[in-house]
Design a protein that fits this description.
Layout: H1 6-26, H2 36-50, H3 56-61, H4 65-78, H5 84-108
Helix pairs in contact: 1-2, 1-4, 4-5
């Protein structure tokens, strides 16, 4: 297993939390002031999520298949949309992207 992908994991957790918040807001199909309770907290989390973004490319470059599996599981654990079909499609899409990355890494080796 490659080194810990701390910054990548933090970014993924933030993106999942943001997606969860947007899913909550979109659930009733209306946008109103009470939706701010879902979105404003995300603004406070943004600085720590983007703080180490410069490290992400090197973390990705060092990933192996075990890391890819862990990241896919992280997204599945963190993503909790009220729209189950959308959540499944997102999880499947992320899983596909990670597997394609793993395939590309194998072909380069």
């Amino acid at each position: 297993m490659a080194k810990d992908q701390k910054e990548l994991k933090e970014a993924l957790v933030f993106m999942c939390a943001l997606a969860n918040s947007i899913g909550e807001v979109a659930e009733d199909g209306k946008l109103n002031i009470s939706d701010a309770t879902h979105l404003v907290p995300m603004l406070y989390k943004l600085p720590s999520a983007v703080d180490g973004m410069a490290d992400i490319p090197s973390e990705v470059a060092e990933m192996d298949s075990e890391d890819i599996e862990q990241l896919a599981q992280l997204v599945k654990d963190e993503l909790d949309l009220p729209q189950d079909k959308v959540e499944m499609a997102i999880e499947d899409g992320i899983d596909l992207c990670l597997r394609l990355y793993a395939l590309a890494q194998k072909l380069r080796a």
